[in-house]
């Protein structure tokens, strides 16, 4: 029996995850490689292509239809990765073309947050939804916007940078060079900054070095009833709730999905977000938009997202 | 010779403007009626339909194709006008259906800002643009968002309320019941509030009663070199520049069009907006997005917008 499959590649600064995914979103095989091991993108592409083609052959009746790629700074229109600070290769990498030349298959590329957004739409909680936001709360805050059932790329392919909307003028310094960006408040990095500020203003002393404080550590403290940790979650939820209420004023979505490290804290983060959202939402939207945890499995989301980008392309062309 | 035309109706709290518009966006005839004169929507619809049908008959060879309507609180999906505080008719008015029953023609309805946005896309400065924002700076701040060449309605038809994004927590009281909404800073109302605050904090005295201060008055003062007026425009531009830079993080538009009373001040408002926008835009978007005055004629924009909504519908169905 013929089994149509696509490859999903999730390029990260440390590791690149890859896998083969069928039409139902089942990850048939998956593995990873250390990204930094490869001195240039050509060798990286050659190695991954070789593995993918060989693994696909081992699956009985499998027909590899194409390759989907999610990457930091990936651009859907150009198929390139441009100036990604966390990747080992400098300048603009024509990543989609490199894979096309190596594998002789259709290839689509976008940034990691947009790939995961398409994953949510095709295989996750947003099936049948035409309008939604997908927000990743990891080191930064990534986002994908779906309007009328399609991901929004914008005129240059770089739409969906909600993490860099300025929420506090002259606020916290952001890696982008400006101040007050949302991701400096609402992300694993953001809650850590908030927590350390709260600790610094209190008589409390940290039990570990400052550099080791993480969102996971803060959640542990929260579970043990620590006031500072509770305040950190409250403030993070407060800021994110306003930001999401504002986001509704743009595209009026049916739902907003939250994903990533910080959401593993469950109610600790969802409760204050929903409370602030309800308080700050414009009347006309009241009670209409759900704030939900992503239905994508944390460990496979990158591969699933990248694969779903390709499935989505194939669907467009009726394959 | 056959001339295809549509009717455009721009419902306002004081007056309702209507006109007949050809495929090139030429307003062939236009006039207005006092909205409040009509005790109920049925009589309003009957009067306007009668006039429109009779005027259309007077144009040689004219074939009336349909009726487009722009209205405060208009909803495209349902064709209704719901709880519009400035209209004389209460509750939810099935306005599109009323016109359809009276005129036996296709009818489309949306809110006034979205109608003007489609006007900009079809007959104005956004021809051939796939991604742009349209912002009206009048009594409030209205907005329309175009993504992939289509206006964004959202899941409920109420997308595009940028005027009600919260820009200052616990900021100025807004008519929507919340605080700190963008339209309380960036609109004719907003600049007036800012100007009065500046005057109140200075030793200067107003030459007219507070209630008579308008954006036009402030612009007159600006032209005479008054510092307070200059500061009011600077602050308004500063806030709007940040808001527009943030908007780019959502859909990455090619251009942002500004329209409405406040833009009649020309460089007095455009200069500080552009300065703040350039300063606050994320690096990846730098130099890509133009901030432009709307190309719609101020006095015909409402009719043109409503008519273009109908032209756009007819195009969809290949008429």
Notable characteristics:
homodimer, 319 residues, alpha/beta, 5-stranded mixed β-sheet, 8 helices, 36% helix
Describe the 3D structure.
- Two copies of one chain form a homodimer.
- Chain A has 319 residues and is of the alpha/beta class.
- Chain A contains eight helices and 13 strands.
- The first copy, chain A, has helices at residues 41-58, 95-103, 112-123, 188-200, 215-223, 227-251, 267-280, 301-316, and strands spanning 3-11, 15-22, 27-34, 62-71, 74-75, 80-82, 92-93, 107-111, 132-137, 141-147, 150-151, 255-259, 290-293.
- Chain A has a five-stranded mixed beta sheet. Chain A has a five-stranded mixed beta sheet with strand order 11-10-9-12-13, with helices on both faces. Chain A has a three-stranded antiparallel beta sheet with strand order 5-6-7.
- In chain A, a hairpin with a 4-residue loop joins strand 2 (15-22) and strand 3 (27-34).
- The first copy, chain A, is globular and about 60 Å long.
- Chain A starts with a strand and ends with a helix.
- The relative contact order of chain A is 0.15.
- The model of chain A has no long low-confidence stretch (mean pLDDT 95).
- The A-B interface holds A 129-131, 145, 147-148, 150, 152-166, 169, 176-178, 242, 245-247, 249-254, 280, 282-285, 288 and B 129-131, 145, 147-148, 150, 152-166, 169, 176-178, 242, 245-247, 249-254, 280, 282-285, 288.
């Amino acid at each position: 029996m013929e089994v149509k499959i696509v490859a999903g590649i999730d390029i990260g600064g440390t590791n690149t995850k890859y896998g083969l995914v069928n039409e139902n979103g089942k990850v048939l095989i998956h593995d990873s490689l250390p990204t930094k091991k490869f001195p240039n993108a050509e060798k990286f592409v050659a190695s991954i292509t070789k593995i993918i083609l060989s693994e696909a052959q081992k699956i009985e009746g499998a027909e590899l239809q194409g390759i989907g790629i999610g990457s930091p700074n990936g651009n859907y229109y150009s198929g390139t990765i441009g100036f990604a600070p966390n990747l080992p290769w400098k300048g603009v990498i024509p990543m989609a073309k490199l894979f096309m030349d190596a594998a002789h298959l259709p290839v689509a590329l976008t940034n990691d947050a947009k790939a995961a957004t398409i994953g949510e739409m095709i295989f996750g909680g947003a099936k049948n939804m035409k309008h939604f936001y997908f927000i990743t709360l990891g080191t930064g805050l990534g986002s994908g916007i779906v309007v009328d059932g399609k991901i929004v790329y914008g005129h240059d392919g770089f739409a969906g940078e909600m993490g860099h909307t300025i929420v506090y003028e002259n606020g916290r310094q952001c890696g982008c060079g400006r101040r007050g960006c949302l991701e400096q408040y609402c992300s694993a990095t953001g809650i850590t900054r908030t927590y350390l500020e709260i600790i610094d203003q209190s008589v409390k002393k940290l039990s570990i070095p400052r550099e080791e404080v993480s969102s996971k550590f803060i959640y542990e403290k929260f579970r043990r009833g620590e006031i500072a940790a509770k305040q950190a979650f409250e403030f993070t939820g407060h800021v994110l709730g306003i930001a999401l209420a504002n986001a509704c004023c743009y595209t009026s979505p049916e739902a907003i999905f939250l994903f990533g490290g910080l959401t593993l804290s469950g109610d600790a983060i969802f409760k204050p977000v929903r409370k602030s959202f309800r308080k700050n939402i414009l009347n006309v939207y009241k009670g209409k938009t759900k704030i939900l945890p992503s239905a994508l499995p944390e460990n496979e989301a990158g591969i699933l997202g990248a694969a779903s980008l390709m499935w989505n392309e194939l669907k467009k062309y009726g394959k």
